[in-house]
Amino acid sequence: MINHIVFLTFKAHITESEINSVLEQLGHLMTVIPAMKDFSFGKNCSPEKLSQGYTHAFIMKFDDAHGRDVYLNHPEHKRIAAELIFPMLENGFESVVVVDYAA
């Protein structure tokens, strides 16, 4: 199992509804990528004040590294990231952290 975790910082004027809508589109990729087993997302709610400005996160679970790579190279993933998510981010690529680990 590969866990794919992404932290994002959205621009302050972007609404929760807009964020939810675009992240839900990523979740719909589970219907076309069989190795994608789970997807969840949410707004940071940690009381620890250690988020370093990241406002939201999502996690995807894949059967294996190959399944994750299918997702990363899928044209719909690339479209959603380039056309919808990145324009909403505070500082482009600097507003994203990605961590994958095998479980």
TrEMBL record:
Residues 2-101 form the Stress-response A/B barrel domain. Gene3D superfamilies: 3.30.70.100. InterPro entries: Dabb (IPR013097), Dimeric_a/b-barrel (IPR011008), HS1/DABB1-like (IPR044662). It holds the Pfam family Dabb. Homodimer. PANTHER family: PTHR33178, STRESS-RESPONSE A_B BARREL DOMAIN-CONTAINING PROTEIN (PTHR33178:SF10). This is Stress responsive A/B barrel domain protein. It comes from Legionella oakridgensis.
